[in-house]
Amino acid sequence: VCEPLDGVSGAVRAMYRMPGGSIIIASKDDSSVAFFSSTKCQGYLGRDGHIRQTKVPFAPVYSVLCDSRGTLWLGSKPDGLFRLRQTDGTAYSVEHVTDALRLGCKDIYDIKEDRQGRLWLAPLGGGIVCITNPQARASEMKVVEMGRVVRGVCNESNRVRRLLIMPDGMLIATTTAGIVVFDNIYQPFDRVKVYRHVREGNRATSLTNSATMDMVDCGDGRIAFSTESGGVNIARIGDLCSQGCEFQHVTTSSGLSSDIVKSMTKYDDGHILLQQNDMLSVLDVRTNRVTSFRSSFFGSRLMFSEAEPLVVRNIGVTFIFLALEDGVAVTTSHD
After folding, report:
1. According to the model, what pLDDT value does residue 30 have?
2. Cα–Cα distance for residue pair 290/261, rounded to 1 Å
3. What order of strands is seen across the sheet that includes strand 108-113?
4. How many CB atoms neighbour CB 217 within 10 A?
């Protein structure tokens, strides 16, 4: 059974669990940023940084990150990047750092932090960006546009959706024109090697579709990639830093009910949740077996969004937050 989550409406574009356990849910249509404790709404973030009990607009937020120093980053479309630092239990200082950064694109779809504390941005235009000193004053932040310093980054792959940083320094990006891989971001940037993987019509083991949406580390040495219209593609991590990387395909030909996979997340060591247009699917990455549930299974017609689903485990109960084009649905499973 799925229940609507009270306090959220409109197209949800980001869901994020904070280190302390609270959950942030951002809606595009009303520009709200809501804070939840489990399934109870605690309030809404205002532009002045205060958490209010009544819904107020902030910005159309698409990405959220709480970094290792406790700084909260919100990436929006089209308002760029916000930096928030908590001043007390119910308020933050808010800095709109976009203008100081002079970003070429202000549509921030993902934010990640590496082990050196640097911030990595995925703009839907302009290519991957690194902020090397994100804790500095906004006017003193150093911004590196990777397309300008890494040889081999092509303009076609500048529209970035998701980022993943591996422990060894490999950075993987899903873009509207293929997968982009940097071999090691911890070496000088001018030494970084870049690899790009796209659909090749004459090679059966290439990507099924170059428009990649999301990715999940399977935990077994492989990465699963979702696509706009080519199902799920799975590759070994070590093969991504080589030309001619071979992908295993999970499509309608092998069990998926639709080849459109908007977003996904890891459910446990063997399973990935896939949000498709009007269905939720579970992919067993060990066998590639797919189990699909149309929205009618949950008792109502649901249209899933591109925000990643969120799995929250409490003692004996697992909550699954499903991002929709009109709010959030929550389903539970008992151990």
Report:
1. 97
2. 13
3. 108-113, 119-123, 129-131, 143-145
4. 14
